[in-house]
Amino acid sequence: MFVLKNAWSALTHHLWRTICIVVVAALIVSASLFGLATRQANDTAHGTAYNSQQVSAVIRPTAATMATRNGADPSWTKHYLSWNDYTTYATAVQTAQLQFTYSFTESLPVRQSASFTAIPGSARPDSNATGGEFTLRSFYTKDAAAANDLGTYKLIAGKQLNYTGQDKTGVLISQQAAMRNKLTVGSEFKVGDPSNASKSYTFKVLGIYAYTGDAPQGYGSDAKLAKDNRENAIYTSYYAFGSNGFESTTAKNWSVPDLNIMFQLSGVSDYNKFVKIVKAAKLPSTHTVSSPSLEAYHEKIAPLVALHTKTELLLDIAWIAGALLLLALAALTMRNRRGELSTALIVGATKPRIGWQLMLELLLPTLLGLAIGMLAGGFGTKPLGAALLSGSGLSNGTIAMNAGIIWKVLGLGLCASLGLGIIASLRALLLRTDTLFEPREEVAR
Description:
Helix content is about 50%, strand content about 15%. It has 14 helices and ten strands. This is ABC transporter permease.
């Protein structure tokens, strides 16, 4: 009781120093909890969550190839992959006993008409050169529509496409195209054939859509050609596309459909194998294999990665600077205590007893700081993580506390507190008793 009373008296006598120890310890602990929780979330995002997801794979022209694209040159269709090309790659994948499912889109330009005009681009070449001002795109399944490289969209009026039905005329048009042409759900309009200006097709507005995100570069209002502006995209089912004669193996120039097959694989490991197999199956140098789903995933977790980078720096600062501050405060606590400790020895206190007192002077505030930091970090990590990741599309529980992190920080905190207390107790154990009664040097005035 005597030791505790003396320790408490020393702590209250130097109140600001005691408060500083509590605050520094609490900040170190709370920062450690948040930093380790963020590290774990980042590890999970790049580990089990990354490897366990289903992965889509597509074969598209390389960036270098796309840089040479001329939408007013009908010979560009030579870069399109055919059904025969995809069959070669699919057969190679199946031979390697790699399982997959697939879906696809097919697209080609169509001409505007008196009843349906396109939103113009910055360049306006003749439609004989471009094939038309609109892009007609068919989806084989709902998954193909969801992976649309022009961007995801939502229906704001009408009905969705029926991918298993036999509707030959039902299409979706953009809100901007509908407003421009004063069309509503149920309205009919005509478009012209990309290779034959005298041939037309009648379609019916099944629904009106609006995109949910920003347009890819060159496919929004910045598009040079009208057909490249995604607002001029007409979406339909594969049945309607084929029923109107657009699915042709003998077509030439812009009447050749741009076929894009999307392979669905069971995981990242299978995707990596898929890439190697397709490249080995003589994939032309003008094309490459990529994964829209993995690209979307990396974009989704980018805010978490950025936050993790910052919190790793926060952990380094908290641990290094915090440790130095606590050691400095411990040294300040032990400074100029020789006279006090000598008096205690003279009146009969033992070195171990004095050492225990000095240990308590550091243990009590650091343990209090540890408790405050555990409460602040334990209850504050999840809402703080949610606030910092707000608007990123990640769930509120992306950065969350668990028992493993709590026990780890608690164990390390207790060990650090005990270590600091032991260092303080050495001040008493190293006190020389043979110099207690030596005369002191007079201070020069």
